[in-house]
């Protein structure tokens, strides 16, 4: 791994940190205001999901569905999608990493990368979408979670109270893992014009149980819980559409579908 | 409470307890099983046909990729490799420890794996992952005579099993998010603890696997660390003490390696990647075969065979043998004309000392002179068990004839040569027994029991160096249970220096 590669990766990883983004009322994003409704934006170069950062392996099966929703959103915004394959993006990455200056900054590296891909197929802006785990805030007595502009129900199994709330000694509050779509868009000069997160869905459910702690000669029951990976992950297309639209807000808002369109199965 | 009510309550409680204690093990469902036979392995399972075929296709790809990216030099094993994918988790646990979701059993007769194929929706991740993980153990073991250190075996199997295919690219060494979550919660295990874990020592398995995976991932990111780690593993396999092997292999100190591992984990937890890729087009993969239905009787026989092979090295062999007998009996209930099940059933009786019943079963079924190699082997094994128990020269002679017949029908059967060796050992012919054991070793897979039996013969003829070399890896084998303890006792008797390395 060259120093340049490390710089590039560090730059990319840094851009994933929420602290780097403006936190709006709904979801965190950063946007170069001149990009809103930019008439020069015709073609978006679309990288595969998580082309440059790790895709959690348990989300492999969802990559196709999320990508199709992203493409549909871009097309609904009247933008032509210029897709790149994973091998193209990986090979471009290797070439830029190997030939670039050892002391280059993350922005210079990104410019070289965007230029390289632009040489393969032309576009106006390059879009890097990624699925990432984020912290969701647990609300409503452990029944719901909110993060990155969306709110979802928390699936539960094990011992749940009659009203659906849960009681555990350590308390079901705080945060839980949730999946968001991260979008980063770059101009040809390597400038990032948009950086945003939109919450997609929860892929874990909370599983409750009881453990017995031995203290002296007595055993005491204690309620415990763990996050368990759900069997069906990122299958709710409405949730995906909402999250993807949130992630594109306010850069590319798709027009509201007409009644006739929304009734189409 | 009145005395009468108390009496009634106690009676009710004892009934409940009795019912609780009498709860039988779940009856394994033997209907709707399928078989997919490839050049290198066979998958049995009771999942949906498409699902099982997809998993088999994934495994064929994985096999091709692992052979391409690792330095494993073996071809496909000449021994059978069977993977049993059981849909129902409770039934699957009949074939594995309760905490596991899959397990690989290297045995003298081949490699067996049992795993949970819980449900169609999870098949895209956990079932596939477990299948690849267990298969990786088999490929890594290859023709190795001694087990790999456990942390390395588990860590590298996990590292490989996270292989993924995305579009036109195969990704290897991906960040294992569930393991990273474990590490975020509990932190990595100290390396001294990871390396120094003794067989049978209790450990937080989640943390252990996560640390082993992260360490192997880290060691694979640098050529120097990779080279040093391979030297370290080679020393450990030879039986050297972990601390001296570490100091002789690694440039960084243990503390420095621990610090760089922590940095590596933090990098991965932030979403960084250190994977590498292969073009999908560069890996030739045969198409997965069509699933073939397996009759319920044959399924019961195959599952009985699995349990029997597990019993070979199991610390709980009597119970396992009885369970195998139940399955063989079931096969016969479903198909009374199943000679292999008849012979296997007789073996389970003989293995529990019920020689008369075993002989009667063979005589009644009329399979004693069968030309089927599997049947002939079981007939020979029954005769050998009886002869060894009685020491009667006539029984020994009869057993010898049976074994030679079995070898004649299947000259490369490791089990037949092992039976011959044990019979020769029991009659005091130690040199001939050693030769037969060595032949069984040459033909067969890893068996801790065989290693110990052979070592005992070497000790009897004064070959303590050979014996110690055989016993050391068994004593350190975390999966060998009581056989490992037996190996340690023999090592103590042989006066082996516990700290010293290769012999």
Structure overview:
The complex is a heterodimer of chains A (265) and B (503). In chain A, 28% of the residues lie in helices and 32% in strands. Chain A is elongated and about 75 Å long. Chain A is α+β, with helices and mostly antiparallel strands. Chain B has a 6-stranded mixed beta sheet with strand order 4-5-3-2-1-9, with helices on both faces. The radius of gyration of chain B is 25 Å and the shape is globular. In chain B, 49% of the residues are buried. In chain B, helix 2 (49-69) links the parallel strand 2 (42-45) and strand 3. Chain B has helices at residues 3-22, 49-69, 89-92, 126-141, 150-161, 177-186, 191-195, 205-219, 223-237, 242-249, 254-269, 296-312, 317-334, 339-351, 355-365, 373-390, 393-409, 414-426, 430-443, 448-460, 464-475, 481-494; strands spanning 33-37, 42-45, 81-86, 102-107, 110-116, 164-166, 169-172, 276-279, 292-294. Chain B is of the alpha+beta class and 503 residues long. At the A-B interface, helix 1, helix 3 and strand 5 of A face helix 6 of B.
Defining key terms:
heterodimer; A: nine-stranded mixed beta sheet; 28% helix; elongated; disordered C terminus; B: 503 residues; alpha+beta; six-stranded mixed beta sheet; three-stranded antiparallel beta sheet; 22 helices; 60% helix; 8% strand; disordered N terminus
